[in-house]
Specification:
The protein is α+β, with helices and mostly antiparallel strands. It contains 2 helices and 4 strands, in the order βββαβα. The chain is extended, with a radius of gyration of 20 Å.
């Protein structure tokens, strides 16, 4: 496992790659509708820039583990807990797969916050990156608006 640092991407963390990775090229492919790529959580990966000017790229993570394997309580809750499971399931017509995990005997293990902890310096850099991104995004929006006018 590689150490983590802050990132503006998904999960707000990224792996700190060893120096021998410097200069290596990332490999990509042209995916089409229905294509799926599976890899382990320990696979070093990245998203290359979307070069299509008129289409948005959608990437979705689905995380799997063997039924009954040890799990943290956080993994049994909705992502970021912005909604409760009851709110998520409120208008579902089919109740057969709701709360499916409750039938499994999971070993609940504590979440190891040390693995995800950021130093004060990393936190400051992440805030600075976020501010630079927002400034650049607003500048692009102003430029696009002036080009349309």
């Amino acid at each position: 496992m590689l150490p983590l640092t802050g990132s503006l991407g998904a999960g707000n963390r990224q792996a700190v790659l060893p120096p021998e990775f410097d200069g290596l090229n990332w490999v990509g492919a042209d995916f089409e509708l229905g294509d799926v790529l599976f890899f382990s959580a320990l696979t070093v990966h990245t998203a290359l820039p979307n070069k299509h000017k008129e289409r948005m790229r959608l990437s979705v993570d689905f995380r799997f583990q063997p039924a009954g394997a040890a799990i943290t309580e956080l993994c049994l809750k909705p992502h970021f807990e912005t909604l409760s499971w009851d709110e998520i399931y409120e208008n579902w017509k089919d109740e057969s797969i709701q709360y499916y995990w409750r039938g499994n005997a999971y070993e609940i293990v504590p979440f190891d916050a040390e693995m995800h902890k950021l130093s004060d310096e990393e936190h400051v850099e992440l805030v600075a990156q976020s501010m630079r991104y927002k400034v650049a995004r607003n500048q692009r929006a102003r430029e696009q608006k002036s080009n349309v006018s």
